């Protein structure tokens, strides 16, 4: 293996992990890598080390200059230099208050109340998919529109704008797909759209998430600014559909690649919950990983890292660490406990993980019930990865039934 690896890695096919993960866990758990921008970082790949970095407040989400990582073609750009990374508080009491406000919308009680509506949306989308006939693209016809409809309902924005959301999301998550000029233009459009939405909610708050944030923070005497509300709405819209849509498609592809696993779930639907967790753990293509910064010298995985180091945490590699999981490279649909790191760890763990789990479980349940004979319409080797974005996924998922 070369001394300086280029990151992110690639794999032989869309459902295989990169070979570098296992090699680095064994020999160089804190390895120097070159990013698409040409900058260098330290990649952390073992479970214990990734968990430590993500949970340790000495590893910050923002560097000493307040800037994000250079992960794309240009110095910054996309999500790392958007208002989401500068307007919203990233640490301290401000960050805790922001999370507390949003956590009210992602409680178990809220998710239980949302589930019947999500299941109804899933059934409607499957009706439309079946009506169009096989073969079909499960990502375009089901995996993508389902979480879009859910998050748009929560935010009170029309899901008829979903194509615009998809473009804006892709530019925010770009590593190499878009130029800086294209990213800046899309961010400006996205911000203008959300500013109009926030202004409408200030006039008539309603009972959606943004309306409640306006009402609740005003009642507490600490109203959120328009800029914070816009950034919050942008972040939730991007995170609330892009990653979940990709995960639904990848989860189904992983299960259909092994007919034995799919048939077991058809016969034992009670396994849906642990099966979703196992799919999250085994995801071979989750994307870039989580970035952290060092403002002071610290040791990671036995390697002393100087101040100013950019650390990239590969949760996907950590999730396949044999030191943390028995038979880590195998899919065990009944695996429990399953303390995977797919949603991160510590103070910055994924805020919407309860929603993502609810959507994934509802999607898989609906597919098993409605289309038990679902199968891939192409060989596994014919599945194509999403390229050039911070999130990983499949371009399409051709299926038949």
From TrEMBL:
<protein>
    <submittedName>
        <fullName>Cytochrome P450</fullName>
    </submittedName>
</protein>
<keyword id="KW-0349">Heme</keyword>
<dbReference type="InterPro" id="IPR001128">
    <property type="entry name" value="Cyt_P450"/>
</dbReference>
<keyword id="KW-0479">Metal-binding</keyword>
<keyword id="KW-0503">Monooxygenase</keyword>
<dbReference type="GO" id="GO:0020037">
    <property type="term" value="F:heme binding"/>
</dbReference>
<dbReference type="InterPro" id="IPR036396">
    <property type="entry name" value="Cyt_P450_sf"/>
</dbReference>
<dbReference type="InterPro" id="IPR017972">
    <property type="entry name" value="Cyt_P450_CS"/>
</dbReference>
<dbReference type="Pfam" id="PF00067">
    <property type="entry name" value="p450"/>
</dbReference>
<dbReference type="GO" id="GO:0016705">
    <property type="term" value="F:oxidoreductase activity, acting on paired donors, with incorporation or reduction of molecular oxygen"/>
</dbReference>
<keyword id="KW-0408">Iron</keyword>
<keyword id="KW-0560">Oxidoreductase</keyword>
<dbReference type="GO" id="GO:0004497">
    <property type="term" value="F:monooxygenase activity"/>
</dbReference>
<dbReference type="GO" id="GO:0005506">
    <property type="term" value="F:iron ion binding"/>
</dbReference>
<dbReference type="InterPro" id="IPR002397">
    <property type="entry name" value="Cyt_P450_B"/>
</dbReference>
<comment type="similarity">
    <text>Belongs to the cytochrome P450 family.</text>
</comment>
């Amino acid at each position: 293996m070369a001394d300086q690896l280029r990151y992110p890695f690639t794999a032989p096919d869309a459902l295989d992990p990169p070979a570098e993960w296992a090699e680095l866990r064994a020999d160089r758990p804190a390895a120097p890598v070159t990013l698409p921008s040409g900058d260098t970082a330290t990649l952390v790949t073992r479970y214990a080390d990734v968990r430590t970095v993500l949970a340790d407040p000495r590893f910050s989400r923002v560097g000493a200059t307040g800037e994000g990582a250079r992960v794309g073609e240009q110095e910054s750009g996309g999500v790392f230099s958007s208002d989401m990374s500068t307007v919203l508080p990233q640490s301290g009491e401000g960050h805790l208050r922001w999370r507390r406000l949003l956590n009210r919308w992602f409680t178990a009680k809220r998710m239980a109340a949302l589930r019947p509506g999500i299941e109804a949306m899933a059934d409607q989308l499957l009706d439309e998919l079946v009506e169009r006939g096989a073969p079909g693209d499960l990502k375009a016809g089901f995996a993508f529109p389902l979480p879009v409809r859910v998050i748009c309902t929560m935010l009170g924005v029309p899901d008829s704008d979903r194509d615009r959301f998809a473009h804006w999301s892709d530019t925010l998550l770009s590593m190499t797909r878009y130029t800086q000029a294209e990213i800046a233009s899309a961010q400006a459009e996205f911000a203008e759209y959300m500013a109009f939405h926030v202004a409408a909610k200030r006039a008539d708050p309603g009972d959606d998430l943004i309306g409640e944030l306006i009402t609740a923070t005003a009642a507490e005497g600490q109203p959120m600014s328009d800029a914070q509300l816009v950034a919050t709405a942008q972040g939730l819209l991007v995170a609330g559909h892009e990653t979940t849509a990709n995960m639904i498609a990848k989860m189904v592809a992983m299960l259909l690649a092994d007919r034995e696993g799919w048939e077991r779930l058809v016969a034992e639907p009670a396994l849906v919950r642990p099966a979703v967790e196992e799919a999250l753990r085994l995801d071979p293509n989750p994307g870039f990983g989580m970035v952290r910064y060092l403002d002071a010298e610290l040791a990671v995985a036995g390697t002393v890292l100087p101040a100013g180091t950019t650390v990239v945490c590969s949760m996907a590699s950590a999730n396949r660490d044999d030191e943390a999981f028995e038979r880590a490279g195998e899919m065990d649909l009944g695996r429990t406990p399953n303390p995977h790191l797919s949603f991160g760890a510590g103070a910055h763990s994924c805020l919407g993980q309860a929603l993502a789990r609810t959507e994934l479980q509802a999607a898989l349940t609906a597919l098993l019930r409605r289309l038990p004979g679902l199968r891939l319409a192409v060989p596994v080797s014919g599945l194509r990865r999403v390229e050039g974005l911070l999130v990983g996924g499949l371009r399409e998922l051709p299926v038949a039934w």
